[in-house]
Amino acid sequence: MNVPFLDLSRTHDAIRADLDTAWHRVVDRSRYIHGEEVEAFEREFAAYCGAEHAIGVGNGLDALHLILRAYGIGPGHEVIVPSNTFIATWLAVSLAGATPVSVDPDPATFNLDPVGVSRAISPRTRAIIPVHLYGQPADMHALLEIAGRHGLVCIEDAAQAHGATFADRRVGSLGHAAAFSFYPGKNLGALGDGGAVTTSDATIARIIRQLANYGSEQKYIHQRKGYNSRLDELQAAVLRVKLRHLDDWNTQRKEIAKFYIDELPNKAFILPTLLAGAESVWHLFVIRVQNRNLLQNFLKENRIESSIHYPVAPADSEAYNNQPVIGDSNVGRMLSDEVLSLPIGPHLEKPQIRHVIEVCQLYANSAGVR
Ligand SMILES: *Cc1c(COP(=O)(O)O)cnc(C)c1O
Q: How many CA atoms are closer than 13 Å to the CA of 80, on its beta-carbon side?
């Protein structure tokens, strides 16, 4: 039995007729930028998240960058980011001209530790970017409280958490603004690149709309020096079809996660911990294990694909090598040596998950508890 880490063709086959109709509709209408599909998707996605506004943009990195720009964050400012995120969170801050300040996560939840955030605040701090890593919302109560106390902007990096909730509210409606990615492998993915910003602040929504379109609202009238970062009609049409299935796909992920948590050997592995009030959508199922490479090879011998998110912490990447990193990265570094992502997603059947569990049990028993 093969257990692929990701197989989008299986997911798309099930909705193939609706996808074909959607993009034929766009080609028939022959409008490819800023048309009815983007407008409708923005309305539907904002409603889904429980935010007043959604603005389609080119990708998740741009979504983060444009939010920082819209809030006037740039040179001389510091922005608090997790030490263990995908590098895009850091790059957005650097692109805006501000300085990323690294804060370690709580190793149990993998998400930003509010105590570390409080400690990292300086007079130059302007924003905090909690990442809802692997699909689990960060501790937004504590982080919003800190942001409020210090007058900081709290920007959700929701690129891995479409549909996740904290205290029964969906991510994208929790902070001042949120960034989403529709990279194909995300829980809600386009057939290419795409992204969105959600916010309930009408002024910020308007600025982001301008920034994403050459700083313009009206053709050839330019209010600001903007960018070209747009969600296109074809991707929006696809995303509208897929948004209708998102809750169902997330439910399938939750069932697999529950099966893993109930059955995986919990002495040899450290299984993911959920924060009270947080409902994860399990973009990834990440365990911690000593001698991670031994387990990964054993899985591979048994035709189970696994992955590592992420093998190098941003602070240790070549991109940030020649500049001093402000803040701690020790937990992030430790996690990058221990984390392993097991297959999860709507492309998998129960016997495949059972196979993963059996192979993991065999591994744990074969050398006693490693
Ligand atoms: C995928 C991802 C991004 C970037 O999204 P792109 O659409 O690939 O630019 C940002 N942050 C996190 C946490 C991500 O996983």
A: 31
| CA pair distance 65, 124, nearest whole angstrom | 18
Cβ of residue 130 lying under 6 Å from some atom of ligand 1: no
- Are 193 and 182 in contact by the 8 Å Cβ rule? The answer is yes
Structure tokens, 64: 């983060």
Dump pLDDT digits (tens) for 121-176.
999 999 999 999 999 999 999 999 999 999 999 999 999 999 999 999 999 999 99
**C-beta of 195 in contact with ligand 1 (< 6 A):** yes
H or E stretch at 53: strand 53-57
| Burial (0-12, 13-18, 19+ Cβ within 10 Å), 145 | middle
**Ligand 1 centroid from CA 89, angstroms:** 7
Residues 114, 91: Cα–Cα separation, whole Å? 22
Query: Which letter does DSSP use for residue 274 in this model?
Result: P
